[in-house]
Each structure stands twice: as structure tokens, then as C-alpha cells.
Prior knowledge:
By secondary structure, this protein is mainly beta.
Amino acid sequence: MSLDPTQIEVDFMILADGAQAVGGKLFMLGGGWTHLFVPQFPGKPAAPFAVAVGITVPFNLTNRRFSFALELTDSDGGRVGDVLTAEMEQGRPPGLRPGTSQPILIAVNAQPEFPGPGRYTFNATIDGELLRSASFEAVPLTPAAPGAPESE
Length: 152
């Protein structure tokens, strides 16, 4: 539920191994990590990953269009890859009680090319205003020595 009835909010943004938003539910696998292993730099991670986003639209802002953007930046604020942009509008289903906020769940799958190891941040904006960020470290994937136990 939105704390400010005059503003659309990004309630959460979670990095995950995989995610889908289907039928008003968010399905996530391996969510909440902070380190992404990349086989070599510059390069892509060995497998795609996901960014799961939860947005709350206050009742009085339903049935209005707004813009959403998700941007990946490096530690210097430089853009990495393309910015995902979308125009959205959350309606009011029949019988919705006045004052009831509406959720929007988004799952974005990604496999960007990282220029080097370091700190990266996904930034979510609504109508150009930064509302939520999720940061992580891209680190080199080092192969285990033969016979060494596997680490998690």
C-alpha cells in the first residue's frame, strides 16, 4: 500500500537468478544476491539474470499514463547498455473500493556486457524521478583448482 497517495512508488527492486511476473504474482528464483560472477571482462555473465520490480499506483493516479525506466550504471554513473523504457497505465478493475492502490509487478531479464569488474547499479525511475536502486558487484569467475572443493 502506498504511503503517499499523490505519488507512484517503486516499493522494491530485487536482483534474482530468474523472475517472471504472471497473473498479478511475481515468481522469483534465487533472489536477493549482491555478487554476479562474470567469466571474463569485458563480457557477459554466464547466464541471464533478472530484475524484479514492484510498483504501487495510488487510487487517484490509476487510469493515467506514466513513464518507467530501468537503467544500469557503473560506479562512475556511466550507462551500461540500453535503458529499458515503457509507458504504463494501471486501470481500476470493476468493483474496486475507492482509495485502493493497485500493484504493478515487472520482471526484466538481462544479460548485459560488463566492461570490467566493479560496482553496478540498476536505477528505476518514474516520470524521470529516481525512486529505487539496487546495486551489486560484478566479479571475475575464477575456476576452482583441480580437486578443490566447490564453494557456494
